[in-house]
Design a protein that fits this description.
The structure is a homotrimer.
Chain A: H1 5-22, E1 29-31, H2 33-37, E2 41-44, H3 54-60, E3 87-90, H4 91-96, E4 100-103, H5 117-120, E5 124-127, H6 141-148, E6 153-156, H7 163-167, E7 176-179, H8 184-196, E8 200-203, H9 210-215, H10 222-252, H11 261-295, H12 304-311, H13 313-333, H14 338-353, H15 362-388, H16 391-394, H17 399-425, H18 442-446, H19 448-460, H20 463-473, H21 480-483, H22 491-499
Parallel strand pairs in A: 1-4, 4-5, 5-6, 7-8
Antiparallel strand pairs in A: 2-3
Helix pairs in contact in A: 10-11, 10-13, 11-13, 11-17, 11-19, 13-15, 15-17
Subcellular location (chains A, B, C): Endosome membrane
Membrane topology (chains A, B, C): Multi-pass membrane protein
Organism (chains A, B, C): Apteryx owenii (Little spotted kiwi)
Chain lengths: ~500, ~500, ~500
């Protein structure tokens, strides 16, 4: 983040001016940070609105890591703009010219501005700084700045916007500029600047939330942590379990099957993870329904763990799809392998030497044909779910469509995966040779959670329970109408009445 | 939808206040619905802008179905906000305090507000209600509300926004708040509220279109219905056709091939569907061009069926890609199957017993190598088409880029798929053993439509026709200059003139 | 583009009016272009805000090419709107009624407006025209129009918006309306219209940049040209190289292996391209770091070629992923092929005749199991990279998350691909039989660039260098503090100071 910032500040103000100007707005923005480049002087960009920031970036050779520069069509804004001529003045003069000042300075150097305190008095200071780690200091940078300059109004903002979004102009997503300050007027002015720059200012209230705002750019996929650890945990468990059944057990019996580890063991592990994760997506919904039924109301807050779980379903679902897709690729690779080839040839040779032409086992054939085709269908459905959870698509659906795809199609996908597992297992659960070290076949373990979910869903779909659930979700509450009975109100009516707030 | 609404209403007003406040706006929003929770009293949220809606949601434990919560980075807005203290007053008082009232009440309970009629007189009522089914009532809820409160101005709006969009703040897509009312001023005020909340208000005109607005959230992928039925129809037809050729026919000849149904028959059906659907994407364009050539103008409206067809091409194309992808996966699964394995071994054994080492058939090898590689290329192109039809990508392309990918690349994909089909068919169309029950091989059937499209495209690309088509599309009309001849106008000039509106 | 324009103009103004009206705005917009349809008269759309543009489109039967109509949920705006009754007046009258006029006329027909010059005097003309090729005329259309009507203020804008975006309302992405004019006030008014229509006006400065704006809609994926040619070049080189090794060489030895060309040769070529392209994504970052280390500053502008390269990494990366995916599909197809089948049977038969049952080669088995599984993992990582580079997802990540995925994960993907290549190569680099015509095995060639990148990355991660690099990227400059020493400044402090602008 750090090495990104100068660009951020500069481009910010450049575009700010550019856009402000383009709207005949007369707020001057001075980039104090530039002062440090040139010792005593500060840089005021001139009023040429076509002064772009791309050249600034080039001059500084900042580069985003990795293949993807942000966003779609930045060429619009990064082409053939003349360089902007920066007018360099003394910092004090610069400050005089302006009302809003972007303080693009590290926290540890706020002090260097202190000798300007008198000139700055009464102006609006926008603190755009970021920390290098979460909750680095007790008080947020903005609050610290405010304590240094009691005569100024400090506004926190713009720190969540990356330099690249700024350079290529605000595009879809991530256009929110979180702003907080104790002074409403100052907040309004900065919000206006943000809006003029094409961002959507979001009021985060007063200074107290500055700390939160400063932590946002330091977050690293917080929503993904738990699901990923969950997936890894499941993977490790099933991997060892399969290792024991497929490699260790034969080894004790004297067969070396270690070559199975890289692909076959992994490929029996992945589907278990995918399958259980998928069921974990629908389990919390079931639990929520249970609690709603039990307490007879929906206005009772869920326990936090359930709330967390509900909010992580998207990530769990996507990881489940990822594992399923990998499982598909692994399975498709099976016939490519040498081992497959050798085994094939060996059986063929054996058959030939025994002069046995008939190797056809109808049951085996049917089993495999069925579970493969069922598996493909399940994968197809899951891919639809994954696609509709892309932001741009999810947002183009209305609520009913979205819940149809995610809830209905998703549950059908769960059903079909269960079918896939059962047909894969076939009758092996009842064949004792499968119980190596008395360990049941892996697929039997995986069936537990999904079957619970499916069973619960079936029960909930019984008319009586469904009715009750629906009423609860429409706002009806158990024993509600006892609390107050309107003169003209029967229990039914008032229950209708309560349901009417919904 | 229903169980979603209370959150929707509440969060709406909460955020409305929050945002309004943050912009120094002084409109009070009262949530009448809350009144029902607390009997006689109504709830007025206090003016703390950092009062978020996430806690409201938690309190009510509403949960979106399925893995995907809407949108990308909601953590911005759902973190660490203090609970908002709701000040609870009597409803009448609450109403006095405000000008705009969000009536978050079911249609059947509007009546319960009647005793407030006098207090409400002259205020703006925003009807946010939704029905449970399309065109449930004769007149729209908003119109019904207006009839109940003749003294108030009723505005319909905000019903298309889901509670989740509201909670996580308006993000890309689906930001439109459709508003309609007979009173321009009221409309303006509500539109302003929407804008302040970060949505883009869309004027839908006067009350008469309220019914339309109320139906929108009840729609379930209307654009997909026809294409999906089309795909299913094609699938069923080709499935039965292939069933007859691949299973029934051998069965009559005394061979049991039923195991082929789950995979092989499906896998010969899917490509047919995909291929024909792809050609159906480009057929309407050809028809449109024909009609334009025939009538010598582009200003003649197309018949509705063609118009419908043109507007469903995206969906048809995506379904075609979906089938093609499934076809690819199915094909890749073929060598995994037991049946494949057994057949392989059996042939090997036979060969061994006959001491035949040479099984190589050069022609077969070539045929398969070619049609597989061609098929992969076609799939690659189709996947590019599918990706560019993602909203976020489609919108980052300019018109020329978009039409290049969709029209040019798409047509090339059609050409290559045709090649794939032909190389797959090879010479089998002329081998009478292939005509089981006198039925021609499936692939011959599929070739009809695509070849027509390709042929038409080739003809249109002939200079003479292309020129004419281009002029028509630039606005030129047959015999146009006859209608009015400007003094200084030659036919050429006026044709140029007409073409100039283009 | 051309045949698109009338719709564009019309819908533009229709929506403009519709939206303007909905905001009580009183600017009249006249579509002069319609005049040409009806000879002497001009068309003024009436004030019915629910007058949609979809019917206009239908009337003109414009159709976007190919399967994908732009955008996600256009049904919102394209349903059940009554036709708008267009009031047809004389052009002069129409012009009198309005202040802002959208001149939807081809450049070559501007002259036809000259007789209106006196009526138009003092009005704002919005030039929405596009050319058919880049830099077609010396001066831009807007400038030409301005020269024709010196009495009017000309504003260039709206030409980058496609008719489809206009019809289905402005949605995510591509909402920018680039505006330029020499008159600030006129610019402000048009910008307001754009904003009312739901677009984000972008000030492009004065008339001089009109030419640039007019060229934008004519661009055809400029950012992709270089990467695609790069990929093609690499493909051709490796294709011929593999052709020589796999086909020509055996042919000279007297074996006909031509059947290998369509799949096997392509499938050994694609991974090379993918692998080298992937390394080329990370090479420029390394070079940039080198130059920063060498010059001891980040404020020195990079040479243009490096700058270009840095800006094309996204495209290079996506092409690399595309090749990798194709490589995966090709590989999965290998066992499907007849040739594979025949070879299998032949070996089996041979073995049978020699009564050899043991064909198992442990090393071969291990090699293949490992490099397949490693390959799958690499593909999985690359797909994650590709997904996060979708605009809508990239924009939902904060900078740290984005750089983590693209830089860290991407580099891990590079490492794993290297492992994949090495395990695939195994010991063959040292087996002289592999050096056909003294040509080394292909995979050895591909290793060069990636290994350089990895090595450089390892070196940069050494504490001493890493520290220096970090300080430079935080703004520190070599020998900087020599330039000015503040009284209270030690070298360390001022270096800190300089780093503080970062």
């Amino acid at each position: 983040m750090a090495y990104l910032e100068p660009g951020q500040k500069k481009t910010q103000s450049v575009q700010a001016k550019q856009k402000l100007y383009s709207h005949g707005n007369v707020i001057t923005v001075v980039i104090v940070c530039l002062w440090f480049f040139t010792g005593e002087t500060a840089c005021v960009f001139p009023w040429f609105p076509f002064c772009s920031s791309s050249d600034v970036r080039r001059r500084h050779g900042q580069t985003p890591p990795g293949p993807s520069q942000r966003g779609g069509g930045p060429q619009h804004r990064s082409h053939g703009r003349p360089h902007c001529r920066a007018e360099v003045t003394f910092q004090a003069e610069a400050v005089k010219k302006t009302d809003v000042i972007f303080v693009a300075v590290f926290r540890e150097h706020y002090s260097t501005l202190c000798d300007l305190a008198d000139v700055l008095a009464g102006k609006i200071l926008v603190d755009v700084s970021n920390n290098t780690e979460i909750n680095h200091h007790k008080e947020s940078n903005a609050e610290y700045l405010a304590s240094l300059f009691p005569a100024c109004t400090v506004v926190k903002g713009f720190n969540v916007i990356s330099a690249w979004t700024l350079q290529s102009g605000a595009r879809d997503g991530n256009k929110q500029v979180l702003i907080c300050s104790n002074n409403q007027e100052a907040k309004r002015i900065v919000a206006e600047i943000a809006q003029v720059m094409g961002f959507t200012p979001v009021d985060m209230g007063c200074m107290s939330s500055a700390c939160e705002i400063e932590n946002i750019p330091l977050r690293l996929l917080p929503a993904w942590k738990i699901p990923i650890f969950l997936a890894l945990g499941l993977f490790l468990f099933f991997f060892t379990y399969n290792l024991v059944r497929q490699v260790i057990h034969p080894y004790i019996r004297g067969q070396k099957k270690f070559y199975k580890i890289p692909i076959e063991v992994v490929n029996t592990t992945l589907p278990c993870v995918a399958y259980i994760m998928l069921s974990l997506v629908y389990l919390p919904g079931v639990l929520a329904a249970c609690s709603q039924l039990y307490y007879g109301t929906k206005y009772r807050r869920f326990p936090d763990w359930l709330d967390q779980w509900l909010r992580h379903r998207k990530q769990i679902g996507l990881l489940s799809f990822f594992c399923a897709a990998l499982h598909a690729v692994y399975s498709l690779c099976l016939p490519m392998r040498r081992s497959h080839r050798y085994q094939l040839i060996e059986t063929a040779v054996k058959q030939a030497m025994e002069k046995k032409t008939d190797v056809w086992v109808e049951e085996e054939v049917w089993r495999m044909e069925i579970y493969i085709s069922v598996g493909i269908i399940a994968l197809g459905l899951l891919s639809l779910l994954a696609i509709t959870s892309l932001p741009s698509i999810a947002n183009s659906l209305n609520w009913r469509e979205f819940s149809f795809v995610q809830s209905t199609l998703g549950f059908i996908a769960l059903l079909i995966s269960t079918l896939h597992t059962l047909t894969y297992g076939w009758s092996r659960a009842f064949d004792e040779n499968q119980y190596k070290f008395y360990l049941p076949p892996t697929y039997t373990l995986t069936l537990l959670v999904p079957c619970t979910v499916i069973l619960a869903r079936v029960i909930f779909s019984l008319p009586c329970i469904q009715q009750r659930l629906l009423r609860i979700r429409r706002g009806w509450e158990k024993g509600r109408y006892v609390k107050f009975v309107l003169p003209s109100a029967t229990g039914e009516y008032s229950s209708g009445e309560t349901s009417s707030n919904v």
